[in-house]
Design goal:
This is NAD(P)-dependent oxidoreductase. InterPro entries: Epimerase_deHydtase, Lipid_A_modif_metabolic_enz, NAD(P)-bd_dom_sf. This protein is of the alpha/beta class and about 350 residues long. Helix content is about 40%, strand content about 15%. It has a domain of about 220 residues: Rossmann fold. The strands form four sheets. Strands 11-7-5-4-1-2-3-14 form an eight-stranded mixed β-sheet, sandwiched between helices. Helix 5 crosses helix 7.
């Protein structure tokens, strides 16, 4: 890239971008895309980034720590804010708000002190709450859990700062995101089917909107390059929607497996999950079966619309069924044998800050 070349992210000359949570699942994919484009970036995270990532600076620190933010944001011209507390369990309510809302407040202060205006915030479709019918950006948010509520609180901080003329914010609301290098719910489902342990609970007719990480990152960077003044928000979800039964059958086909025709009644499945949860509590382990996950997969409808994103002119590169198969391919070649440790943010703020050039 020559000096003065226009940036992937904005219509300004190339500058350095701060990526909070750049060592996480979506953050890693996003930083790789920045790196491939020649964009300079800094990662702020409690965890070491993937070895193939070469940030200009890696700041090992807590996004709730003002010193860590100051160490990371100096010299940057834009912020991509992905750091979050987001797991289904094992996180206290206050921690969700400390990480998701509190870090956003600190970033706004740090940006204001340095006259940095542009921030892209990765929120969540969880801000809408229950989605028994397709939700779009015109629907009033109504989160039902601390994760969605804390993300919505962060959005409101950004809107307040933008209304005061202090920044320009793009808000991305993906639904459940999956893909290579992800070890969350989709990985657990693939592993259960592969091991022959999967039983479909209920009829599997509930719609489950999904986001594929490559499409999500592509859209976020595409929209960010076109974002102007003020605040705008976009859902991201793959189309067309699939039901939980269709998802399971597609994964089974890609794995060369068959799933049982017999469906397990919901009440029985929840009863069987109860002692497993007890075992997990006693051993301190996080197991792939829980009542919350059963409800999420077999009962809850999570149906969202990305019509606004698609109508803006963006064309996703991978269709949903291919995305599921690509994820299975990664699982078979790599993910199946990779040890994974669940990364939970500490309840108390990590005070130490380390800078790696």
């Amino acid at each position: 890239m020559s000096e003065g070349q226009i940036d992937l992210l904005s219509s300004t000359p190339l500058g350095c971008v701060l990526v909070t949570g750049g060592s996480g699942f979506i953050g890693t994919h996003l930083c790789r895309r920045l790196q491939e484009s020649g964009r300079r970036y800094v990662i702020l995270d409690l965890h070491t980034p993937a070895s193939f990532l070469k940030p200009e600076r890696f700041v090992r620190g807590d996004v709730r720590n003002p010193l860590a933010i100051a160490s990371a944001i100096d010299g940057c011209s834009e912020v991509l804010h992905l750091a979050a507390a987001h797991h289904d369990s094992g996180i206290a309510r206050d921690t969700y708000f400390d990480v998701n809302e509190g870090s956003t407040s600190l970033l706004i202060e740090a940006m204001s002190a340095r006259t940095i205006r542009r921030i892209c915030f990765f929120s969540s479709a969880a801000v809408y709450g229950e989605a028994n019918h397709s939700r779009n950006e015109t629907h009033e948010p109504n989160p039902i859990g601390p994760y969605g509520a804390s993300k919505l609180a962060a959005e409101r901080l950004l809107r307040g700062a933008a209304a005061a003329g202090g920044l320009d914010a793009l808000i991305i609301r993906p639904t459940v995101t999956f893909g290579p290098e992800n070890f969350a719910n989709m990985f657990s489902l693939i592993r259960q089917i592969d091991a022959g342990l999967y039983l479909q609970v209920g009829e599997g007719a509930n719609v489950k909107s999904l986001s594929y990480v490559d499409n999500l990152v592509s859209f976020a960077l595409w929209a960010w390059a076109r974002h102007g003044a003020g605040v705008d928000e976009f859902n991201w979800v793959e189309t067309p929607d699939m039901t939980s039964g269709e998802i399971a059958r597609e994964l089974a086909s890609a794995l060369g497996r068959r799933i049982p025709i017999i469906h397990l009644p919901l009440g029985l499945a929840l009863a069987l999950a109860l002692p497993i949860e007890g075992l997990a509590a006693l051993t301190g382990r996080t197991l792939s079966v829980s009542r919350a996950r059963i409800r999420k997969m077999a009962v809850d409808k999570t149906q969202f619309s990305a019509a606004k994103a698609i109508s803006s002119g963006f064309v996703p590169g991978v269709i949903l069924r291919d995305a599921l198969r690509q994820t299975v391919s990664w699982y078979m070649t790599t993910g199946k044998s990779v040890p994974y440790k669940r990364l939970i943010p500490p309840e108390s703020i990590e005070q130490s800050v380390e800078i790696f050039p």
